[in-house]
Amino acid sequence: MKQHVVRFFSLFVLVTTLSSGVGAQTRPDESIEEPTKTGAIKGRVVNESGQPLANVSVSVRAVGFVGQGRVTTTDSDGNFQVSDLDPLAYLVSAWFPSYTTPPRDPNNPQVTYYRLGDSVRLELVKGGVITGLVTRPAGEPVVAVRVRAEMIRDGNGQPARYRPYFRERMTDDRGIYRIYGLVPGTYIISAGGIGSSPYNSTAYDTDAPTYAPSSTRSDAVEMSVASGQEIANVDIRYRGEPGHAVSGLVRRPDGSPSLGFTVNLTSVSSGISPSTYSIFQPPGFLAFAIYGVPDGDYDVTAQVFLTGEWAFSDPKRIKVRGADINGLELITKPLGSIKGRVVLEESKTPECKGKLRPSFAEMLVTAWHNEKSEAKDRPQFQFAYGSPSVPDKQGDFIMRSLATGEYRFSARFFAKYWYLQSISLPSPVNAAAKSSNSSLDKARNWTLVKSGDQISGLTITLSEGAASLRGNVRPAEGQTIPARINVHLIPAEKDKAQDVLRFFSVAVDVDGKFSVSNLPPGRYFVFATAVSDNESTAISKLRLPDEVEARAKLRQQAEAAKTEIELTPCQNLIDYQLLLKQPTH
Q: Nearest Cα to 552, choosing from 491, 484, 506?
């Protein structure tokens, strides 16, 4: 019996889409208050012109919760509110027919999380449209064939790596298709072949896809779609060429059947955005078969969800060349995991008395993989499975489903007067001493994680006493403010020169204002620089373990600028005036 194929959707998106140092979302002041048992998150949904959108579906979902979460609808003024929420960290999203979310700013890719009492502004933009006609070589229409628009680059020109985005529609009785609600970006269009739903089979499922205008994937025509734009007459002359089958068995390490599994087929053609397809088999099955596969090179992997974490097989590279591929055997094994604890160190400084402590329930601990060292022989979608972890009441956490790679760590929390002090792991035990009391700085160094690794002892220390700095950047006489500016804070104490957690970089608003919080007390060089359009402003890039040269260069610039400040525990320095010193030519 033929199996139907399902296009893969990752459950979590971490990716180049996300990057983070340590960050905290704070309110104007945070003093000790009675713990909130329940509360509300409210907000407004608008279009690209700032006009309210009514009857929009809004989802409020706790981080780490797999499901839809709480859903509500906006009123006539675009407003919404979800009440009786527990004090946790939340994701808020909106959906409306023919609308979509705008492309994420590549210079600020951080996902925003919310807490009780926050007011949220969500923007949706009118989606693009692609429409055309599918016909056979003789000109007759191809009726009820699946047509797909697959994004290969987003509106910012960034390729889709971890979560392929696509939309599908069927042709009508005239062979016409119309795909709407498309996220702005660059697309390729295809008809027939592998579909996205096991419950929506067609007569063309075993065909190799035909790409517009009438080609294989390598010669497909790319088309860019802007918000609200309609591109018509994207016609496809359907080739109707048969695809191939890829089949085999999936087992666990002990040889027993997996408890329901998914097999992924990921294209690996050089220079082409990868497409990932998958087929699900229920518990008790060993065999799988994927049909409608065109010629090409692919990685084949199997995955299964067991006891709260994912298990994957090592990828098998196959070459489909005019024939089926049979007899594959895939053995699933757990991905890596890291256990640790968040430690809170309180301050005895009088100025810090009565300040709000971080709440573990509103905190997120995340592992971010090293994109520069990604193994080229591993499908990249596996990195999308490692989700943020929320510590328990004792501060203990576990980060699961980490694909093989190098990782750095971050902690995001809501507490204005606390800062990230350190991230460490115990040193490997010396065989002679049989014990180790030292630790490794994991803020400055990558941590290698391999499939099956169960690393423990990661300690993230948050200390009370953080300061904040708020002010304005003003130009020197006779100069103008550039369009994009960053304010940098670089540790002035020589013994802190290599402490990456004391390097800060923040973008300046269009009105010249800036704000930096969660600063460890101490001396800093502070200066502002112009930023090019293709340069990242994210603090996470500055803190990457391998950005040693970038930090050294900034320190040289800071010492040359000779502007120094000293921040004391729990100090709020406001109305700070910073002169922008631009190089003269």
A: 491
